[in-house]
## 1
Amino acid sequence: DIQLTQSPSTLSASVGDRVTITCRASQSISSWLAWYQQKPGKAPKLLIYKASSLESGVPSRFSGSGSGTEFTLTISSLQPDDFATYYCQQYDSYFRTFGQGTKVEMK
Amino acid sequence: VQLVESGGGLVKPGGSLRLSCAASGFTFNIYAMNWVRQAPGKGLEWVSFISSSSDNIYYADSVKGRFTISRDNAKNSVYLQMNSLRAEDTAMYYCARDEAGWGQGTLVTVSS
């Protein structure tokens, strides 16, 4: 199975900060990577698909980049609504896998 | 895209449940579908994949031999038959389409 490793596991930041989360794949997944945001008690929300395509309705402060084995999710200016847990997911393999999650908390 | 899961509940160890997911807002019969679960306080775990025509079906090792995924394209629905349930299967189960949103989930609790 393809392993996804996210870093960091926890990130402390302030409103207005630029935030970057990294996702590394154990083998090349081309651009078949999605990013999700999850808040407590809610279903995950799709933010980015195909590594860098912004889902409709998602604020433009979210962006994704990368291909192959290294990917990043960037929030250009952190807003109060962005404190949440973020997951990457690969869909290159039929056996989908997720990163372990990155919790973005208030500094 | 709208996905609505149902069928969760409380079941004893060794019991069975059948989850359903009703899809709308897209051409269901051309998309593969997945089930994903999340145990309380844990991360996301992919459970199973079914291709658009049901030709390709895959399971996570943790559920292989106990769970069966299926779909009915005429009813725009995907199902997860769960047998021989264990305490560690307790989780919120989500129906998911790649590059699209997820449903709100259905809670499965396995406890005596």
## 2
Amino acid sequence: AQSVAQPEDQVNVAEGNPLTVKCTYSVSGNPYLFWYVQYPNRGLQFLLKYITGDNLVKGSYGFEAEFNKSQTSFHLKKPSALVSDSALYFCAVRVTGFQKLVFGTGTRLLVSP
Amino acid sequence: DAGVIQSPRHEVTEMGQEVTLRCKPISGHNSLFWYRQTMMRGLELLIYFNNNVPIDDSGMPEDRFSAKMPNASFSTLKIQPSEPRDSAVYFCASRPSGRASADTQYFGPGTRLTVL
């Protein structure tokens, strides 16, 4: 069965420093992978996705993610964190043969001034 | 586009009462998803529709929960009777048709349900 794992409940980083939010996946076949962000009292917002092609995917708000097939990972990255990036981040994978996504448990990112 | 619209944004009710949550997907989207989010269980898919037809309702927790999509622009999630453990934030999401979308879902702002 398709699944994603986000091993960190929370990531703390200082403003201006690079950030990484980790995600590993388990799928049969080629993975469709997604990152979403949730700000307080809001719905999830799409950040970026990997379908095929370049392993480095660029998305909204300066975020990018690197697809690594050998490590079955899809880590979210940003070169310089902002306090406004503080939010809950979800990794997701499409279930093969279905239109639905399976979401990870989420990682809370806290960027300190 | 206004995005996915959900109503009400907040609902407080007493145990045993019927609760109806509403969703208007983005125009032109042909798939609709209902999720529930709690601290304990995270984000759970309850049911999803494709072209107004329920495709997978395996996430619906009990018979107390039901969902309908009478047309392409409206869906409801009903809980009858409600229980305190149903307290959660309920999200609706929609997805456009076509391969280019590659399953990107667009979420509404959610309905925060509190059952006393």
